[in-house]
Amino acid sequence: MSRTVADRAAAIAAVAEVFREHGFEGASLSAITARTGLGKGSLYYFFPGGKEEMAEAVLAEIDGWFTRAIFSPLRDDADPEAAIRRMLRETDSYFRSGRRVCLIGAFALGDTRDRFAARIAAYFAAWRAALAEALMRANRPEASERAEHAVLAIQGALVLARALGDQAVFVRALERLERELLAE
Amino acid sequence: MSRTVADRAAAIAAVAEVFREHGFEGASLSAITARTGLGKGSLYYFFPGGKEEMAEAVLAEIDGWFTRAIFSPLRDDADPEAAIRRMLRETDSYFRSGRRVCLIGAFALGDTRDRFAARIAAYFAAWRAALAEALMRANRPEASERAEHAVLAIQGALVLARALGDQAVFVRALERLERELLAE
DNA sequence: TGATCTCTGTACCGATCGGTACAGAGTCGG
DNA sequence: CCGACTCTGTACCGATCGGTACAGAGATCA
């Protein structure tokens, strides 16, 4: 891995946190330079398209991570129930038990949605479809309905946990999901 | 009702829509003047505290509406099951079947949360508590758990419906909630 | 009519916004 | 040692940000 790629990857991770905290509009270049440790010169060297390109890179990175860690196992793992449990475990860990916000969910609520509508929709549609596939393979009835409800409950749990400042809300929601998803 | 109050009330409603679409940081004074039809002079006459005071007024207005239309009936209506059905009906109507976003939920996700943390937490806590109260009065088991899950599912449904650009997701979620909440 | 109060438009403030231009530091193969 | 290429800091751009100051329009009442 060249030094360039490593730096760019590190920058993407840092930029993601800034977007997560401030949203797309609210993520000022000065906040991004502070967090990444990169000056404007470097930033526009890595992302000539400016904030828009940074956001694209961040969304692609997140999408890639979820595909690798969660969606693919749900679709392909020989043991679909294990894949579902893994999804819940990885989700808890990724969102830091509710302390971390879903960037894509946050983007979906604001007017940022229009700009990245395709990517945002694709992310949630992929999650819903992969989970439905796993439920089908596990012979659970109403797979589509359960899958949609689970994806939606995770997003809602993130909102509510953050609103109440109580991560236990998120943990409880995931426990409930495990029961509901795997019930016959 | 004096003209002043009417104008201020109308302004609050218009400002609420701007916050809803752009978030707190993203709601520029120029967007607010455009939407309200009021110049800066009038705006700062009605809200001397600027954007912060506008947001406070908007949050108070929303909280008042929900208390009147939903929370109070859940707590006090002689028929708690009817109050729950009313909650679902009013929720569907308020959020335009998923086309409209929850301003308070959106605020909760961004860094705006810290500024209005108390109000945001109070709103969701009141909803959860009022619904739990109604479920208790209706002799449903696990009232607290069901209530928390319902509040969370509504927020999640708003996120997912908007992310996918498909309001049917929201409608389905409400139908599911009616079944779950009123089940023995 | 004249005094008063409510409301509004406009000019203006310093700060910050996202973005550009560009010189040059640092590193590398030849 | 010499270009060539990668990366970075800085100066600068016009636009817009939230907020202030204030004169005065318009209605109201004595």
UniProtKB/TrEMBL annotation, chains A, B:
Pfam families, per the entry: TetR_C_13_2, TetR_N
Segments of the chain annotated as binding DNA: 28-47
Organism encoding this protein: Methylobacterium aerolatum
Name the record gives this protein: AcrR family transcriptional regulator
The UniProt record lists the keyword Transcription: yes
HTH tetR-type domain residues: 5-65
Protein's UniProt keywords contain Hydrolase: no
Keywords carried by this UniProt record: DNA-binding, Transcription, Transcription regulation
Alphabetical list of PANTHER family matching this protein: HTH-TYPE TRANSCRIPTIONAL REGULATOR YJDC, TRANSCRIPTIONAL REGULATORY PROTEIN
